[in-house]
Specification:
The protein is mostly helical. It folds into four domains: 53 residues, Irregular (CD2-Gal4), CATH 4.10.240; 155 residues, no CATH class; 102 residues; 160 residues, no CATH class. It contains 29 helices and no strands. Helix 27 packs across helix 28.
Length: 650
């Protein structure tokens, strides 16, 4: 009997209570209603005063019942509607005509209510997380959806609707790093005048080569208001190459690595400027003494993580309404797009240096930024970024193609690479007549020859030297020689000083390739080994001049020391002597590492050889027993760390 009474009570309909409305519940305020159905607060603020339903209805008694969900399904908008509901929901989408079905005519009254309550295929609550718009129904309709108070989705959409009312569109929330503890000026590390001087000098030097910033937007006041981390890292990067800012550079170094970087990781800061700060920190991070402790890839990965949190990867897909968007909004959007392009480029380059798998490069960026530099508000350096994206895309596609080719097709691969790179050069060199006025695009010859050397080295990597085609070796010899000729012309010491680490790695890589080619003079008559070594000496002299005016421990010092050891030994040790010294135990300890570098660069030394000094840091289990051309780029990147060893005789 008791069981039956409980059953009757559970199906009975209770009288409706007056509960607090949704707006008051969201703000956790008392909801008082003196007269009518609208509470005093909603009446005063002109809000939509809606209250949760309290009547327990059996299924099918009201259209609202179809919109309810079970406790096991917390997101009712994902629930598939019934057949009658689906027909009613789609009724509004059909064009009105004379012929109407029986279902349409009989359910005309209820279908309007159901179509407003239950999302259909065309009005489903799906958000396009592109950062500036979504495909939800209009704001007025969102208040017609009845969801229980405990629904997390209702709370989410209520916050979203307030965002839409205030800004007109949905943006991923930024968390600016504007804390006083991160401000280098308020921390008394440097004065406002010194910070302003360093920022201005950075924009005039590093800024032109990097093409990270648009000076029309990224002023000192903008940086100071948006990101203390980016301001600190810009000042640190510039102070490292200013002799009179040596003490300030040391204090900024401690501030960035002891305060700023940990704060970004633990504080949850996220913005376009935070991505730029981490990207710059990775691009200019000095080499460590142990290559396995290098933080460049870790810093770059954190930059990619923050970029994904603010959906930066979708910024290139967005279409800006140039007729209605203000100039400031368009500059802000291009600021985000420029950051994503630079992140994509740097991740691709660092992946090649370190031998890691590139992740961001899987996105076909060039198809979405092909005409990005033709925008009315484009900066004059933007053309260089688009050209670099296309060149990297060519490298990526040809590397993927090489993995699919069967052995014996190296000649076809080399010809295709040569054709595509020459086509790239013609298209971008003809893009503008004043190519030399664009700081980064004027380095195109360096980028072209570097890419060609990489791809040709890949073709020779898995072949024994006796089977190397002479035509591929000749193209490799010419491309490497051209790079070494152009480098001192385009990047003299006063300009090389303002380059990021990738340029130092590329120069070291070309020198190592040239040293190895110089040893092949007896096998290929067209190779002039002495001339190649002279070109290498000129590149080393340019790097040494830049190292003299930069702070100790920077990339300039490390790579200068590394190349000095390689060239010094290669000029005094012939190929036969190097092979002889490999098996000899009478070599002096001061030159042992330098000789090992040359022997490995020439393919005469194995990584697993027990004669390698204990200070050798290049022990990588993923390497084969012999370094081929494709491994030399990692060797060039890791050489800066190896050169800091105490046993390395510079």
């Amino acid at each position: 009997m008791a069981h039956g009474s409980r059953l009757i009570m559970s199906t009975a309909v209770y009288e409706q209570k007056r509960l607090a409305c949704y707006p008051c519940r969201d703000k956790k305020l008392r909801c008082t209603t003196i007269q009518g159905d609208v509470c005093d607060r909603c009446k005063l603020r002109s809000l939509s005063c809606r209250r949760p339903l309290t009547k327990r209805r059996s299924e099918g008694t009201e259209p609202v019942a179809a919109a309810r969900h079970s406790s096991n399904e917390p997101f009712p908008s994902r629930q598939s509607p019934s057949n009658s509901t689906r027909v009613a929901g789609h009724k509004r989408l059909r064009s009105t005509g004379n012929g109407r079905s029986a279902i349409d005519s009989s359910n005309e009254t209820s279908s309007t209510k159901v179509s407003e309550l239950i999302p259909t295929a065309s009005t489903s609550r799906t958000v396009d997380f592109s950062g500036s718009f979504d495909s939800r129904p209009p704001y007025q309709r969102s208040h017609d959806v009845s969801l229980p108070l405990e629904s997390a989705e209702r709370l989410f959409w209520s916050i979203l609707d307030r965002q839409r009312m205030s800004k007109g569109s949905f943006h991923f929330a930024n968390h600016l790093d504007s804390s006083t503890a991160l401000d280098p000026i308020r921390c008394h590390i440097l004065t406002t005048r010194e910070a302003l001087h360093l920022v201005d000098r950075f924009m005039a030097t590093f800024g032109k080569t990097l093409a990270y910033f648009d000076p029309r937007l990224c002023t000192f006041d903008f940086l100071q208001s948006r990101s203390q981390s980016l301001l600190s890292i810009i000042c640190l990067t510039m102070a490292r190459v200013e002799p009179c800012f040596g003490q300030i550079a040391s204090r900024l170094e401690q501030h960035v690595h002891g305060t700023v970087y940990p704060a970004i990781l633990s504080g949850g800061f996220r913005s376009v400027e935070v991505v730029q700060a981490l990207l710059m920190l990775a691009a200019f991070e000095p080499p460590t003494e142990d290559v396995r402790e290098d933080k460049s890839w870790s810093l770059l990965s954190h930059a990619a993580r923050v970029a994904s949190e603010i959906n930066l990867q979708a910024c290139m897909i967005e279409k800006t309404d140039t007729d209605h968007a203000s100039e400031a909004d368009q500059l802000q959007q291009r600021h985000a797009q420029r950051t994503w392009i630079n992140l994509w480029l740097h991740e691709f380059s660092l992946a090649q240096h370190t031998g890691r798998q590139s992740i961001l490069a899987e996105q076909d960026l060039f198809s979405s930024c092909r005409d990005w530099h033709h925008h009315p508000l484009a900066h004059y350096t933007d053309i260089a970024l688009v050209s670099m994206v296309e060149l990297r895309t060519i490298i990526k596609k040809n590397r993927s193609l090489f993995r699919l080719l069967s052995p014996g097709n190296e000649m076809i691969f080399a010809e295709q690479c040569k054709t595509q790179i020459e086509a790239w050069s013609r298209s971008w060199f003809n893009e503008r007549s004043s190519i030399d006025s664009i700081p980064r695009l004027e380095l195109s010859q360096l980028y072209v020859n570097h890419a060609f050397v990489q791809l040709l080295g890949l073709a020779l990597h898995h072949q024994p030297q006796s089977e190397w085609p002479s035509s591929i070796v000749l193209d490799l010899y010419e491309a490497c020689g051209t790079y070494l000729d152009v480098f001192p012309q385009r990047l003299p010491s006063h300009r090389l000083l303002y380059c990021y680490n990738s340029m130092w790695v590329a120069a070291s890589y070309q020198v190592i390739v040239a040293v190895r080619l110089a040893q092949l003079g007896s096998s290929f008559a067209f190779i002039d080994g002495d001339m190649l070594l002279q070109k290498c000496q000129r590149v080393h002299a340019c790097i040494a001049s830049a190292a003299k005016v930069s702070a100790p421990g920077t990339a300039a010092h490390c790579y200068e020391r590394f190349l000095d050891g390689v060239l010094r030994t290669s000029s005094s040790v012939s190929t036969g002597d190097a092979m002889e010294r490999t098996s000899s135990t009478e070599a002096s300890s001061s030159d042992s590492i330098a000789e090992t570098l040359v022997q490995v660069s020439q393919g005469l030394h194995t990584i697993a050889d027990p004669s390698v000094p204990s200070s050798e840091h290049l022990t990588e289990p993923t390497f084969g027993s012999l370094l081929g051309f494709d491994d030399l780029e990692f060797f060039a990147w890791a050489g800066a760390s190896l050169a800091q060893n105490d046993d390395f005789n510079a």
